[in-house]
């Protein structure tokens, strides 16, 4: 009898769709501030986004990241996240 391995699912804070954890990027609130966690293993409160710029724009518009991370996020941080997203997606 074989066992079925459970695939971890997470909800995107932009489009609100459930997807596999490996197919998403983790945005993290930690001592350094708000950063993009490419490994998914850093300590801190995390929120997940699809690997698309559209979902990041939706999360900014509907304040999904702010709600998930429970903190006010300044515009400079959003601009830095957009830059990091574009570097990773290239």
Question: What report would you give on this structure?
Answer:
The protein has helices at residues 53-61, 64-69, 75-89, and strands spanning 9-11, 18-20, 24-30, 33-37, 45-50. The protein is α+β, with helices and mostly antiparallel strands and 90 residues long. It has one domain (9-89): YlxR-like (Hypothetical Cytosolic Protein, Chain: A), CATH 3.30.1230.10. A three-stranded antiparallel sheet has the order 4-3-5. A two-stranded antiparallel ribbon has the order 1-2. The longest helix has 15 residues, at 75-89. The protein is globular and about 55 Å long. 20% of the residues are buried.
Please provide a brief summary of the model.
Helix content is 33%, strand content 27%. It is α+β, with helices and mostly antiparallel strands and 90 residues long.
Features:
90 residues, alpha+beta, Hypothetical Cytosolic Protein, Chain: A, two-stranded antiparallel ribbon, 33% helix
Helix tally equals: 3
Name given to the CATH architecture: 2-Layer Sandwich
Strand content: 25-35%
C-alpha Rg (nearest Å): 14 Å
Give a short account of the largest sheet: 3 strands, antiparallel
- Number of self-contained structural domains: 1
- The number of strands is 5
> Low-confidence spans: pLDDT under 50, at least 5 residues?
none
Given helix and strand content, the structural type is alpha+beta
Widest beta sheet: strand line-up = 4-3-5
Share of residues in helices: 25-40%
**Intertermini distance:** 43 Å
If you average the pLDDT, what whole number results?
88
What is the chain-wise order of helices and strands?
Answer: EEEEEHHH
CATH class: Alpha Beta
Instruction: Categorize the overall geometry.
Output: globular
